[in-house]
Amino acid sequence: MSFKFDFDIDDRADDDHALLGITTGPSQHLKSASSEPAEAPCTELSLDHLLATLPPALSYATLPVPETDIALARRDLFDARFQVLAQADPSEPARAADGSTSSDALAFLDAPSDLLPRVYEGGLKTWECALDLAAHVHRLGWPSFVGKRVIEVGCGTAIPSLYVLHTLFSGPPPADTDGTQETHVHLQDYNASVLELVTFPNIFLAWYTSPAASPHRPSLDPNSPAGETDDDSSPGELTLTPALVRAFADALSTHRIRLRFFAGGWSSLYPSQLLPAPSPRQYDLVLTAETVYRADGLRPLVRVLREASLGDSSVPSVDQHGMDVENNEGEQGQGLCLVAAKVVYFGVGGGVVEFIRAVEDGQAGLEQGRVEKVWEHSTGVGRAILRVRWR
After folding, report:
1. pTM of the entire predicted model
2. Under a CB-based contact definition with an 8 Å cutoff, are residues 233 and 62 in contact?
């Protein structure tokens, strides 16, 4: 049995899911925890591996980020399905980095659900709260993400991270020569196939539609119809030549962006081990959207978010935290942790209240942090953005 969230972001998403065979009918209940498969261990997917899995072409649409003039490119789901079908070979099925086959990927592409617990966790679809979070990151008003350390947990199509990367690619490369302005962007999703089929292609598109890639975009023919532009901010199809892929890799190096990707469950994800020394190895910005839908997943999620925010330093006491330098920055000794979620996920047991309880009650009744609601949408299905201050 599977579960559906029933919350679509736009009509095009509905069209994509119709092409995939994914319905938007009434929600179904999850199977009991005892009948679920074991959680997949967390493993890293190398940049070289993901570059090698890029298809010959990408079909994409754009999503405007609310309250900004930025439109983020997102790979079409039907295009991802076409890639899986093209690679399918019953006699020798292609395997993703986590050992799953193209047949496995096609199974959850075609499944009439948004969630198959511990098999497919909904990462192919762009959820509303991901756009909410991208818009909120914009509202923070950070002058630059250069030199920052960012992690998105449960990234899926990675909309908040795409906003960060598009911003980085829209600015000049850092001028330092000692590596102090290296920017680290790390992304985790339960499914390696999600990282291969949508997350990484979307990151490629974030570069391609940015000013950094303008030399590699074809100029308009003077005879092109009026109203067309050469910025590829509208839906289209992109041919991925070897030269273009090399240019993307070169842009990562020039902008000193270090990407890392992780597939698998949260129980074996240890963020403090992912960043280079010196200690404390903590992230400046910790992001997650639409990940609090299952009550039984809250404890490992809270641990991951807390560790990412605090690093491998000893847990500071309340009086060591100090006051915020600014309202949009993390407290002293920890990164800024933002969680975007629906108020209630019907039929699953998760939601904003359950997440707050998991943080503020903690294990054995010990408070692990404080949660502040920094943004709220109350029309229709309620949504919120939460800021977590860890103890």
Report:
1. 0.84
2. yes
- Give phi and psi for 64, each to the nearest 5: -70, 135
Two structure tokens written together for 244:
């273009």
Q: How far is 292 from 105, CA to CA, in rounded Å?
A: 24
Q: What's the full length of the chain, in residues? A: 391
Minimal CA–CA distance to 172: which of 145, 206, 208, 141?
Answer: 145
Mean pLDDT, contiguous 10-residue spans, the chain (391 residues): 47 42 33 67 97 97 95 95 80 56 65 67 90 98 95 98 98 80 96 96 98 85 44 77 98 98 96 85 96 92 96 46 45 89 88 95 74 96 96 85
What's the CATH architecture for 43-75+118-215+230-390? 3-Layer(aba) Sandwich (3.40)
Dihedral sign of CA atoms 223, 224, 227, 230 in order: negative
The two three-digit tokens of residue 12, written as one number: 């095009």
In angstroms, the CA 331 to CA 372 distance is 13
- In DSSP notation, 105-133 reads HHHHHHSSSSBBTTTB-STTSPPHHHHHH
The dihedrals phi and psi of 176, each to the nearest 5 degrees, come to -70, 160
389 alpha carbon, distance to own chain's centre? 21
- In eight-state DSSP terms, residue 67 is T
* pLDDT tens for each residue of 3-55: 444 444 544 444 443 333 333 332 333 344 456 788 999 999 999 999 999 99
Cα separation of 315 and 309, whole Å?
A: 11
Which phi and psi (to 5°) does residue 259 adopt?
A: -95, 140
Burial of 279 (0-12, 13-18, 19+ CB in 10 A): exposed
Give dist(CA 69, CA 86) in Å, integer.
36
Calculated CA dihedral for residues 310, 170, 377, 12, nearest 10 degrees: -120
Domain-wise residue ranges, the chain: 43-75+118-215+230-390
d(CA 53, CA 201) in angstroms, rounded, equals 9
